[in-house]
Amino acid sequence: MPRALAAVPLMPMLVAGVLLACVLAACSKPQPPEKERPVEPQAMQHAQLREAMQAPVDKAKAAEADVQQAADAQRAAIDAAGG
Asked: What's in the keyword line of the UniProt record (predicted)?
């Protein structure tokens, strides 16, 4: 008798066993939810984002004032030299 014919009666039992395992796994007790974390206010998140975006702008404005002051001093030196 070939081996394939001997395995045929086991196939329905195997399928039934897999289905039974799936049903038992689906019926397990649900796990309790994790402890809830307090929600961080969105205004704080937006404030941090706004500060992070505004810092380079403020730095550029400060540098612009220094550049303008240097340009004025150079222009004054050129005017004083008779240029």
From this structure: Signal
Domain that holds residue 63: 49-83
Report pLDDT digits (tens) over 36-56.
777 777 777 788 888 999 999
Asked whether residue 24 is assigned to any structural domain, the reply reads no
Tell me which residue has tokens 């038992």. Answer: 24
CA distance 39 to 57: 30
Helices (DSSP H) in 8-41: which residue ranges? 10-26
Question: At residue 14, what are phi and psi to the nearest 5 degrees?
Answer: -65, -45
Q: Rounded distance, CA 76 to CA 74, Å? A: 5
Q: Is 76 a member of any domain?
A: yes
Domain count along the chain: 1
Q: Is residue 78 part of a domain?
A: yes
Kindly state the tokens that stand for 75.
């222009």
Rounded to the nearest integer, the mean pLDDT of the chain is 81
